[in-house]
């Protein structure tokens, strides 16, 4: 009997997998203004292309297919397989007609005075996508402008496609054919930059399509990912990874020349499994819990699901058996964005051991309850991730060399009136003694790669150094697992050298900041490679430049052994900012304390630079106050100097600094939050933390006055608990919110230490629990290689290998407007979700130690 049932089930599955939309429903536009049916959403420019980073793969027409975003970038594009820095259209307007089931957008390429309209309409079991032109395609865009739609490779690996009935396999690794065409025919990229190598080539690479036809079916064997596209105009299927590892599979039809009106039409039909309901996601800390802390799992439920009344906790015994220890009530929280949420409190389970949660027919992976669960969660970040990020050093780990010594050729003065990439630009003057492209001496020292790329960002360095000094002073972190030799420029991971790693890292970051102050004259926005074809470099940082100083008397790629004619040396962008001066002065004043007795020379130079920067920033601010420069006025109102004078007082004990702090802190605490989503909680990190740090120096009366602001801060926490089931500031911007969560938890730590009767230590634990898995979309730990289940891929410099660097914390959840929070763990190239940064990782180390301190208390 069992065999018969198994055979029937197999035939049914085979029949379904070869059919589409057997039980599908018509798409309708919902109140969130996107097309919806059970198991399928079609977003039409709910998210727009980013003018700064161009194509972030989070814009245009997009599919959320059975709970997973599998397609994006539906728009008029100018390349077969656009790269990140290729031109993107600007959204002129968007019109939603809910009654007639249409969404229409108008797009414009200003560079070509070219407008197009895309109308998406509900039709049959899918949507019709029509392109309209009021004027013909401009002559220079004929054969270039087309309707593109991009499908996530990770969703289609190991699946097949049909093009006019002919089968093909989606390649795991790009292996399609390419051709070379004259560069004169290439549509220019962002302000003249190019991602193509410049080694004497006057040409560019063009991929051939994998297949072409009028009916394209993706994943015909997989009901969850099946998509059919039909058109009277030929459709080509491309592999965008031939040009860039972050490319997607692209379907594309060219717009015809010399035509207006409706010039192109597609019928797009993604399969919707009848009655599909997303499985509940049981969210909890993958690191586990200490016995005494509050333990609450959050259960994320599909809108069509019904919460179960109870859940259970099982203990895994030493003989491998599962023993139920708790049946508990599941409490419905309510709706947040697109899902419903419930909570399961199992705080009463306190006995150390290995546990899992049972909800319905789901049993989670295991996690520990033990007094020591937080003791080593930060070790991979300090032991591995930060050493790998060290600039100007060769970094080794056992049998592996992460990178050689990079950027021996640092650095040149950036040219004036230059718009760069990644937010860098140089103004009309250098604001230094150096001429454009003149060598700045003494800069090939210290610093960290900011993130998944290889630039030095000064603001991030300030954050790291400040957090590391706090670690040293607050928790006396003296762990030694890394060999760091500044003389030989060599780092060896997992090799103690008798020196605290935190002090060595403070030294390493401070070396670069002091070099900026002494050799450039002031801290700079950052130091970055000059060419876009260098910037997308992946792998060993020491090969991004030739490591030879630029010599204008030599030809490109010519070398005399000591220098080269290749203009690949990094540029320093030297626009001066009083805010950055204040911030750097604060970091250097703090570093001077930590380094005293360890590197006295560097400590003295740090303090000297800090004092000078404060004086020069004060003078600049004074001059700005007499002008009508509104940004300067706003910055002054924020009290950018508060942390600077506090740190200088702690270091020097000169009362003039403390007097200035006390005189200005109250006005700063009264400033509006500047963030409509998170109110008081947001401003806390800017003003409240320095105010709390000042308590030991200003006495009881000061602390009593500050208490009122802590009460207000607690009120913001209460309000936050009403806004989402996690009670934390979940970001709704274009960058994941892990940093905001960690920052809020750190603020709560300082507030709890000073006012434990107002701020509970649970607020600190909750932030770390969120990072470790109690968050929307999934339950994986956002810290690579930390926790039972953690991030498998991340946006590091090794992202092309689909792996991680242990210890890095990713940005986490990215909101795809209007209501879809996402963190992909099968596609590392979405930096807003997966790019690890030095600032965020340093804050994570501090929070981990803060939580362990609370446990020890």
UniProtKB/TrEMBL annotation:
<dbReference type="GO" id="GO:0000272">
    <property type="term" value="P:polysaccharide catabolic process"/>
</dbReference>
<comment type="similarity">
    <text>Belongs to the glycosyl hydrolase 9 (cellulase E) family.</text>
</comment>
<dbReference type="InterPro" id="IPR012341">
    <property type="entry name" value="6hp_glycosidase-like_sf"/>
</dbReference>
<dbReference type="InterPro" id="IPR008928">
    <property type="entry name" value="6-hairpin_glycosidase_sf"/>
</dbReference>
<dbReference type="Pfam" id="PF02927">
    <property type="entry name" value="CelD_N"/>
</dbReference>
<dbReference type="InterPro" id="IPR013783">
    <property type="entry name" value="Ig-like_fold"/>
</dbReference>
<keyword id="KW-0119">Carbohydrate metabolism</keyword>
<feature type="signal peptide">
    <location>
        <begin position="1"/>
        <end position="24"/>
    </location>
</feature>
<dbReference type="InterPro" id="IPR001701">
    <property type="entry name" value="Glyco_hydro_9"/>
</dbReference>
<dbReference type="GO" id="GO:0008810">
    <property type="term" value="F:cellulase activity"/>
</dbReference>
<keyword id="KW-0624">Polysaccharide degradation</keyword>
<feature type="domain" description="Glycoside hydrolase family 9">
    <location>
        <begin position="444"/>
        <end position="795"/>
    </location>
</feature>
<protein>
    <submittedName>
        <fullName>Cellulase-like Ig domain-containing protein</fullName>
    </submittedName>
</protein>
<dbReference type="InterPro" id="IPR004197">
    <property type="entry name" value="Cellulase_Ig-like"/>
</dbReference>
<dbReference type="Pfam" id="PF00759">
    <property type="entry name" value="Glyco_hydro_9"/>
</dbReference>
<feature type="domain" description="Cellulase Ig-like">
    <location>
        <begin position="280"/>
        <end position="362"/>
    </location>
</feature>
<dbReference type="InterPro" id="IPR014756">
    <property type="entry name" value="Ig_E-set"/>
</dbReference>
<keyword id="KW-0732">Signal</keyword>
């Amino acid at each position: 009997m069992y065999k018969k049932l198994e055979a029937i089930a197999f035939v049914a599955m085979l029949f379904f997998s070869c059919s589409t939309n057997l039980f599908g429903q018509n798409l309708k536009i919902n109140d969130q203004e996107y097309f919806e049916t059970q198991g399928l959403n079609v977003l039409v420019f709910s998210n727009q292309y980013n003018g700064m980073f161009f194509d972030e793969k989070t814009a245009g027409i997009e599919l959320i297919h059975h709970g997973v975003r599998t397609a994006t970038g539906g728009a008029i594009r100018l390349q077969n397989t656009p790269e990140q820095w290729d031109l993107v259209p600007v959204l002129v307007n968007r019109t939603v007609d809910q009654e007639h089931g249409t969404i229409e957008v108008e797009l414009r390429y200003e560079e070509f005075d070219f407008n197009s309209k895309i109308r998406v309409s509900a039709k049959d079991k899918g949507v019709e996508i029509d392109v309209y032109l009021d004027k013909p395609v401009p002559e220079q865009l004929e054969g270039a402008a087309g309707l593109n739609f991009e499908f996530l490779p990770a969703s289609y690996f190991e699946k097949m496609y049909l093009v006019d009935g002919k089968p093909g396999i989606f390649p795991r690794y790009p292996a399609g054919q390419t051709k070379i065409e004259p560069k004169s025919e290439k549509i220019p990229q962002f302000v003249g930059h190019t991602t193509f190598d410049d080694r004497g080539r006057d040409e560019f690479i063009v991929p051939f399509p994998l297949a072409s036809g009028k009916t394209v079916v993706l994943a015909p064997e997989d009901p969850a990912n099946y998509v059919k596209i039909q058109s009277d105009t030929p459709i080509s299927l491309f592999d965008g990874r031939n040009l860039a590892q972050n490319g997607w599979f692209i379907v594309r039809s060219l717009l015809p020349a010399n035509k207006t009106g409706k010039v192109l039409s597609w019928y797009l039909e993604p399969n919707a499994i009848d009655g599909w309901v997303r499985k509940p996601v049981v969210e909890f800390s993958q690191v586990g819990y200490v016995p005494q802390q509050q333990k609450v799992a959050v259960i994320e439920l599909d809108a069509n699901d019904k919460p179960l009344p109870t859940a259970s906790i099982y203990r895994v015994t030493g003989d491998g058996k599962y023993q139920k220890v708790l049946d508990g009530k599941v409490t419905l929280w309510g709706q947040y964005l697109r899902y419903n949420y419930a909570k399961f409190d199992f705080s009463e389970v306190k006995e150390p051991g290995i546990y899992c949660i049972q909800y319905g027919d789901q049993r989670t992976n295991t996690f520990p309850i033990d007094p020591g669960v937080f003791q080593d969660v930060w070790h991979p970040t300090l032991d591995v991730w930060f050493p790998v990020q060290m600039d100007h050093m060769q970094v080794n780990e056992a049998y592996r060399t992460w990178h050689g010594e990079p950027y021996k050729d640092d650095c040149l003065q950036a040219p004036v009136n230059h718009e760069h990439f990644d937010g860098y630009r140089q103004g009309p003057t250098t604001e230094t003694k150096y001429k454009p492209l003149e060598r700045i001496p003494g800069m090939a020292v210290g610093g960290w790669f900011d993130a998944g790329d290889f630039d030095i960002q000064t603001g991030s360095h300030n954050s790291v150094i400040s957090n590391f000094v706090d670690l040293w002073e607050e928790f006396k972190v003296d762990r030694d697992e890394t060999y760091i030799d500044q003389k030989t420029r060599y780092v060896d991971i997992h090799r103690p050298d008798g020196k605290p790693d935190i002090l060595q890292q403070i030294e390493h970051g401070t070396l670069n900041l002091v070099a900026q102050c002494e050799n450039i004259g002031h801290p700079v926005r950052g130091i970055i490679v000059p060419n876009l074809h260098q910037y997308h470099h992946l792998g060993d940082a020491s090969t991004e430049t030739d490591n030879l100083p630029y010599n204008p008397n030599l030809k490109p790629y010519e070398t005399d052994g000591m220098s080269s004619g290749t203009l690949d040396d990094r540029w320093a962008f030297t626009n001066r900012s009083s805010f950055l001066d204040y911030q750097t002065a604060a970091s250097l004043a703090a570093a001077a304390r930590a380094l005293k007795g360890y590197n006295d020379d560097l400590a003295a130079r740090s303090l000297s630079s800090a004092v000078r920067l404060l004086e020069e920033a004060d003078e600049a601010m004074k001059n700005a106050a007499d002008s009508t420069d509104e940004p300067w006025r706003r910055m002054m109102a924020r009290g950018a100097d508060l942390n600077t004078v506090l740190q200088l007082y702690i270091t020097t004990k000169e009362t003039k600094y403390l007097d200035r702090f006390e005189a200005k802190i109250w006005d700063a605490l009264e400033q509006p939050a500047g963030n409509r989503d998170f109110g008081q909680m947001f401003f806390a990190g800017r003003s409240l933390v320095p105010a709390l740090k000042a308590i030991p120096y200003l006495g009881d009366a000061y602390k009593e006055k500050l208490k009122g602001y802590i009460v207000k801060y607690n009120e913001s926490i209460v309000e936050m608990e009403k806004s989402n089931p996690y009670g934390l500031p979940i970001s709704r911007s274009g960058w994941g919110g892990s940093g905001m969560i960690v920052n809020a938890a750190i603020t709560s730590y300082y507030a709890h230490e000073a006012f434990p009767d107002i701020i509970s230590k649970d607020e600190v634990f909750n932030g770390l629990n969120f990072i470790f898995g109690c968050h929307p979309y999934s339950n994986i730990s956002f810290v690579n290689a930390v926790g039972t289940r953690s991030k498998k891929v991340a946006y590091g410099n090794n992202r092309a290998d689909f792996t991680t660097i242990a210890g890095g914390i990713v940005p986490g959840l990215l909101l795809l407007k209007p209501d879809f929070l996402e963190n992909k763990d099968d596609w590392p190239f979405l930096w807003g979700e997966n790019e690890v940064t030095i600032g965020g990782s340093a804050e994570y180390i501090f929070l981990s130690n803060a939580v362990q301190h609370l446990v020890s208390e």
